[in-house]
C-alpha cells in the first residue's frame, strides 16, 4: 500500500496527514471549484475567480512528500508521518510535505534561490508579488481605464461620496485593535479592505504587516470578488424601493479636455508623491496610466490595457489561488481577518449609501442615493452595481457618469488613506512606546 | 409617501447610531491606559488627515480646471 501512496503522492499525503489537514485540503479544493462555477455564472468576477479557483485546486491537490534536500531548504516541521506496515512510525519516517508550485514562507537567500529553481511560480511570486510590483501593474491598468472627466467636472460631489465610503477603512482599524488585539500595522492593513482596492490592500500590508501579507491579500481579494454579488442586497436593505427609483436631476457637465485631465494627472501625481513618498510606487502607477490615456499614446494605452493589465490580473488570480494552501486556514489570524474584512466592506458600503442620502436630501430628493455605493472604489464594479440597480427600478435612467465619478474618486481617496496609514502608523507606534 | 420615506431614513439613521454606539462600547478596551491616545483617537486623526487631503484635492482640481479654462479662453481671444 505504501508503494501506491509513494506513486500517487497527492493521495499519499492526504492519507498521511492529520484529519484537520485532510478536511482543509478537500474543503479548499471544493471552494476552488465553487469559485470557478460562480465566476463562470457571472456572480463573481470571472477574470480573477477562474485562475484563483484553478490555483486553489492545484495547490491543495498537488501536495507531495518533499525530498530530504528540499525539506531542509523549506525549514518546516515534519507534518506527515508515513506509517510502515506494522503501524509504528518513527521520527526518521516523519516527512515534510510541499508542492512544486510555490513556497511563499521560505526564508533566507539560499533557500529562496533553491525554490526559485524548483517551484514554477516562485519567480513570479518573488519578483512581482511579494514586492508589490503586480499591485502597481494592476493600478497602472486601472489608470488607463479611468476617465477622470466627471471627477474634474464635479470634484466636490465625487470626493464627498468617496470620503463617506471610507467609513470601513477608518472604523475597522480601532475595532481590529480592540476586538482581536492586533497591532496597529496589522489593523491598518486589514482596515484597507474597506477601501475595496486590492492593490492598495497588498501595498499597505507589505509596508505595515508583511508577515500577514498572504492571508490579508487572499481574504481581501476573496471579499472584493463578493462586492458585485453582495452589495445589491445591502442597497435593497438600506434604500426603500420608491427611493431606489428616484430620477437624478442631470445638470449639464462642462466639457473637460484631455489636456485638463493630463494636467490633473501630472499635478496630482507630484503633490501626492510629495506628501506620501512611501506610497509613491502606487501613486505613480495610477497617474501614469491616466497620463498615458490622456496624452493619447495609443501604443502604450493598448500595451498597458491589453497586455499588462490582463497579464497581471491572470497571474494575480493564479497566485492568490496557489497561496490558499491548507496552512493558510490554520493561521490563527485568518478568522479575525475574515470577520474584519466583511465588517470593513459592509461599513464602507453603509458609509457610501449614507453619503448618497445626504446628497439626496441636499438636492431636494433629485439624486439617487444608490450612487453613493460607487464611492466604495472597486472600479468599475460598484459603479456597474449602482447603474444596474437604478436601471432596474427606473428604466432608462443613466447614472453611470456620476457613479464612475464617485468610483474614481474612491480610488483616489483609497490611495490617500493608504498613504496616510503608511505614514502615520509608524509615528503612532513610536509615540506609544 | 415622502413622509414615509423620511421616517424610514430616520429609522436607519437611528439604527446606525445605535449600532455604532454598541460597536464603540465594545471597543472601549482599545484605550491602552490613561494619557495615551486610543486606537479610536488615532483612527480619528487618520480620517481627519484623509479628509483634509481629499478636500484639498477637490479644491486643487477646481482651481486647476478654472485656471486652465481661463488660459484657454485668453488664448482663443488672442487668436
Identify the overall geometry of chain B: elongated
- Seen as an oligomer or otherwise, the chain set is heterodimer
Indicate the structural class of chain B. mainly alpha
Rg of chain B, alpha carbons:
23 Å
Strand content of chain B: under 5%
Number of helices of chain B: 2
Biggest sheet layout of chain A: 2 strands, antiparallel
Class derived from helix and strand content of chain A: mainly alpha
Q: What number is the mean pLDDT of chain A? A: 88
Biggest interface, chains and residue tallies: A-B, 49 and 41 residues
Number of strands of chain B: 0
**Sequence of secondary-structure elements of chain A:** HHHHEHEEEHHHHHHHHHHHHHHHHH
Largest sheet: spatial strand order of chain A: 1-4
- The number of domains of chain B is 2
What order do the helices and strands of chain B follow? HH
Number of strands of chain A: 4
Share of helical residues of chain A = over 70%
SS field, number of helical segments of chain A: 22
**Cα-to-Cα separation, first versus last residue of chain A:** 58 Å
The description of the largest β-sheet of chain B is:
none
Can you describe this structure in just a few lines?
The complex is a heterodimer of chains A (433) and B (79). Chain A is an all-alpha fold and 433 residues long.
